[in-house]
Amino acid sequence: MKAPVEFYFDFSSPYGYLAAHRVEALGAELGRDILWRPILLGVAFKATGQSPLIAQPLRGPYHLHDLKRTARRLGLPFQLPEGFPLPTMAAARAFYWAEAQSPAAAKKLALALYDACFAEGINITKGETVAEIAGKAGFDADAILAAIADPAIKERLRAETDGAVARGVFGSPFFIVDGEPFWGNDRLADLRDWIKSGGW
């Protein structure tokens, strides 16, 4: 079996939102499963000394312009939620709970959370908000709330984040396929060509 494409992202990443709407089609085209892995970028930022792109002088206004432009090109609605950038522990924990039930369902939840955040401009920081969005997407809202507070789920997210940073993941979206890393929504074409050609 061909190894999956590992898709690392933070629910506070607008470029991750754009990639989340593209990556499954790419996987289907290439015959590769996509392994979704939400992490907390704040941990990576501490390791690299970086800050969210939108908050950086000069780069921030450009990236906001680019995000809106890229969303238009992809036909996706886009708006930043109030309070952006957001802490997204609750959303990531909810994902890992859902994945334990069904990886396919977890991807559905991830897209619902991403769409709420960047298509509707909803701040998804609070567990109650995450549970409400999950409930509308067909999940058990009470179970989601319980999972967000579950020490085992908290540890799972911590381990996934630390493991990602140890592998060199420093941004979102970040892809690893057959050991080769690609950073950014704009690297999906390179990722496709790498897999099709066997690398260069």
UniProtKB/TrEMBL annotation:
Domain DSBA-like thioredoxin: 5-195
Keywords carried by this UniProt record: Isomerase
Catalytic activity entry: 2-hydroxychromene-2-carboxylate = (3E)-4-(2-hydroxyphenyl)-2-oxobut-3-enoate
Matches recorded under Pfam families: DSBA (PF01323)
Active site, per annotation: 13 (nucleophile)
Gene3D superfamilies xref list: Glutaredoxin (3.40.30.10)
Biological process terms in GO annotation: glutathione metabolic process; naphthalene catabolic process
Enzyme class label: isomerase
EC number: 5.99.1.4
Molecular function in Gene Ontology: 2-hydroxychromene-2-carboxylate isomerase activity; glutathione peroxidase activity; glutathione transferase activity
Annotated family: Belongs to the GST superfamily. NadH family.
Protein name: 2-hydroxychromene-2-carboxylate isomerase
The organism of origin for this protein: Dongia mobilis
Source taxonomy: Bacteria, Pseudomonadati, Pseudomonadota, Alphaproteobacteria, Rhodospirillales
